[in-house]
Amino acid sequence: MSRRTHASLAILLALSACSAGTDRPRDSGQVVARVGDVELTASQLQQTLTANGVKPEDAAARRLALDALVDRTLLVSKARKDGLDREPAVLAQTQAAVDRIHAQAAVERIASAVPRPGADEIRAFRDAHPALFSKRRVYTIEQLTTESATVDAAGLRARVSTARRIDEVADWLSARGVAFVRQSGTLLPEEAGPTLAATLQQRAEGDLVVLGTPPSLQVLHLRRIDARPGEGAKTDAWIERHLLEQRRRAVIDAAVDGMRRDAKVTLLGEFAPTARAPADTRVPATAGAIGGPARPEASGSVDRGVGALR
């Protein structure tokens, strides 16, 4: 297989990730290629580039993306010729994809009405969270993560309180047959979230910290702490995005909750209400609305967890 084909197929596989909200270029109707009777437009090309994070001015990438569009068009034509578009499994997947696109479009429409935070709100947030800005610190850490439902959380916290090295904690877990994943990296406070950032602000270099609740527990070793205060426009832009995301999430959750109240939703089978499982026990509304898990600002897994390892 040629190098072009390898790269083209890689882009081809990413085409399905193109968002319904992709910005359209001014010449969206311009035809850039014809495959038989099918016309490929500049808008489709732009969506492909956006989905792959490619800069539009990269001529080589634009040509590669166009090759991917041509390949996809040929494969779609063959699928239809072979009757694959009428296969039950394909029809089900097609409907699921359409449903996801429509749900995402609804979410984006609801979120689009949310106003951006003003300068006073941005300033107030910055002043209220020194751990993220004026006293910002970057942490070089080692991390142990366990998802075991049988882990003795109280025992783990007690062991961490007396340990001097993370190896001692790893040995304690291993001796009890508790599986864990060990990682190292850099933890940025703005990625950890305000609550965790404030917690770590009280800690010193070399400390061991236990985070989370069973079954998801993390042990952090703060190997190094570097003071790196935030800077002007960069922090303002981050605060604006953060506040806007919070505001949009709240509006979307409220809208979906309202839809649930107005609609007749009946849970059946194993999901039917019982005395031990109230009817209103459910996941956050946005999780189902956009086809993926919600990302709450603060949760049991520590403000989006320490998944911010770099």
Q: What order do the helices and strands come in, and which of them pair?
A:
Layout: H1 3-14, E1 31-35, E2 38-41, H2 42-51, H3 59-81, H4 88-112, H5 119-128, E3 137-146, H6 153-162, H7 166-175, E4 181-187, H8 189-192, H9 194-201, E5 208-213, E6 216-227, H10 232-262, H11 285-289
Antiparallel strand pairs: 1-2, 3-4, 3-6, 5-6
Helix pairs in contact: 1-3, 2-3, 4-10, 5-10
Give a concise summary.
The chain is of the alpha+beta class and 310 residues long. Helix content is 48%, strand content 14%.
Topology, number of strands: 6
Rg computed from alpha carbons, rounded to a whole number of angstroms? 25 Å
The low-confidence runs, each spanning 5 or more residues with pLDDT under 50, are 16-27, 277-310
Helicity, as a percent range? 40-55%
SS strand fraction: 5-15%
SSE succession: HEEHHHHEHHEHHEEHH
N- to C-terminal separation? 34 Å
Number of spatially distinct domains: 2
Task: Please report the number of helical segments.
Answer: 11
Structural class: alpha+beta
Q: What's the overall average pLDDT, rounded?
A: 81
